[in-house]
């Protein structure tokens, strides 16, 4: 979507207030750089995290600054470099190897899925900004499984008690296959198309629009 974008295109405002296409790519680059560090050097990762402040927005701005200072071709090159580094670092580990992360340690395979979710979410912001309608295939199942596994995260992130309930998910893949998670007799149920489910989980669409 951005490989052939001109300089003005990189300045296009996205649905995230104050963020251009360049901000979105810079954010992905910074996030994947952090993931590569977490997977390859837990000590250095912990040192970086220890320097973060309670001000979430300030931390994000600081992480983006170095990337946003670059011209679009260099920003794109650096994003691709950070992505490859994260892929290599994560794929070098067993899937169940615990990797330190911002809220809690995650298995390497789950952190990889979290990276896919970041790509999906911020890629959607770029697509919306540029008027592009994306097509998805059943590889989106990685994101569905991640969202199902972490459904409690929204409560934990807001320091709200997680409801003591079981959840049933019946999510329809782009191919028409139904992915099922959780007990069939659970009272709490989530059903619908996989792409819509991921748009909801990443807060890119309101549930009433899905």
Shape: globular
CATH fourth-tier homologous superfamily of the largest domain: dinb family like domain
Counting helices, strands and paired strands, the structural category is mainly alpha
Classify the oligomer.
single chain
Q: What fraction, in percent, of the residue positions are helical?
A: 40-55%
Number of strands: 5
Q: In sequence order, what are the helices and strands, one letter per element?
A: HHHHHEEHHHEEEH
What CATH architecture of the largest domain would you give? Up-down Bundle
Helix segment tally: 9
Can you walk through the features of this model?
53% of the residues lie in helices and 10% in strands. The model has no long low-confidence stretch (mean pLDDT 95). α2 runs parallel beside α5, α2 packs antiparallel against α6 and α6 (108-130) packs across α7. With 210 residues, the chain is mainly alpha-helical. It has helices at residues 7-10, 21-40, 42-50, 56-68, 72-91, 108-130, 141-149, 153-157, 194-201, and strands spanning 98-99, 106-107, 167-172, 178-181, 188-193. A hairpin with a 5-residue loop joins β3 and β4 (178-181). The protein has 2 domains: 7-134, dinb family like domain (Four Helix Bundle (Hemerythrin (Met), subunit A)); 139-209, no CATH class.
């Amino acid at each position: 979507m951005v490989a052939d974008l001109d300089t003005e295109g990189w300045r296009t405002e996205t649905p995230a207030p104050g963020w251009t296409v360049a901000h979105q790519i810079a954010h992905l680059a910074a996030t994947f750089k952090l993931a590569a560090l977490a997977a390859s050097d837990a000590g250095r990762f912990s040192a970086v995290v220890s320097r973060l402040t309670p001000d979430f927005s300030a931390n994000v701005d600081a992480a983006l600054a170095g990337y946003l200072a670059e011209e679009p071709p260099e920003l794109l090159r650096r994003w691709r470099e950070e992505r490859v580094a994260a892929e290599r670092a994560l794929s070098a580990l067993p899937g169940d190897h615990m990797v330190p992360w911002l809220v809690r340690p995650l298995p390497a395979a789950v952190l990889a899925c979290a990276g896919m979710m970041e790509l999906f979410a911020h890629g959607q912001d770029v697509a919306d900004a540029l008027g592009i309608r994306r097509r998805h295939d059943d590889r989106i199942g990685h994101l569905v499984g991640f969202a199902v596994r972490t459904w409690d995260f929204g409560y934990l992130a807001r320091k709200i008690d997680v409801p003591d309930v079981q959840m049933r998910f019946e999510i329809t893949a782009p191919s028409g296959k139904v992915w099922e998670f959780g007990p069939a007799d659970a009272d709490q149920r989530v059903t619908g198309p996989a792409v819509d489910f991921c748009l909801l989980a990443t807060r890119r669409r309101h549930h009433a629009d899905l």
